[in-house]
Amino acid sequence: MGHPLYCGLTLENFTDRRKAERASTAGQLHMRDAAARVLRIRASDFDHLVRAGLLTHAATARSGWNKHDVVLLYRQADLDRLARSRRIDWDAVRVTPEGHRSPLAALPTQQAAGR
């Protein structure tokens, strides 16, 4: 069915609470605006990261308002990895005021697969 299977005995014997908490936090999923807040950037800056292929969604969910709408979800571990990237001048991105062009706008657009 496409879902991972785990040995129940292994899970019952797992006692490292800190590892379990870190894994739980790393696996937390965020919608776009919440993910942008985690990175402390504007939603439009977040869109540039996705366009450039530096961040991709980890899962999808159906909207609670309209069951036909799909919501993209971004994993905390992926956001943390990107936040540590030295490829991006985060300070410059974060101080860019509303209405001004983001430094992330200059990122190249990721080529679609198969082109």
Could you provide a short overview of the structure?
The protein has 115 residues and is of the alpha+beta class. 41% of the residues lie in helices and 10% in strands.
Provide a descriptive summary of the structure in words.
The chain contains 6 helices and 3 strands, in the order H-H-E-H-H-E-E-H-H. The protein has 115 residues and is an alpha+beta fold. The protein has a domain at 29-103. A 3-stranded antiparallel β-sheet has the order 1-3-2. A hairpin with a 7-residue loop joins strand 2 and strand 3.
Major β-sheet profile: 3 strands, antiparallel
Cross-sheet strand order for the largest sheet: 1-3-2
Content-based structural category: alpha+beta
Give the mean pLDDT: 86
What is the share of helical residues? 40-55%
Give the helix tally. 6
The H-and-E topology, N to C, reads as HHEHHEEHH
First and last CA, distance: 31 Å
Query: What is the β-strand count?
Result: 3
Share in β-strands: 5-15%
Radius of gyration: 17 Å
Jot down its keywords:
about 120 residues, alpha+beta
What is the topological layout?
Elements: H1 8-13, H2 17-26, E1 29-30, H3 32-39, H4 43-51, E2 59-62, E3 70-75, H5 76-83, H6 90-95
Antiparallel strand pairs: 1-3, 2-3
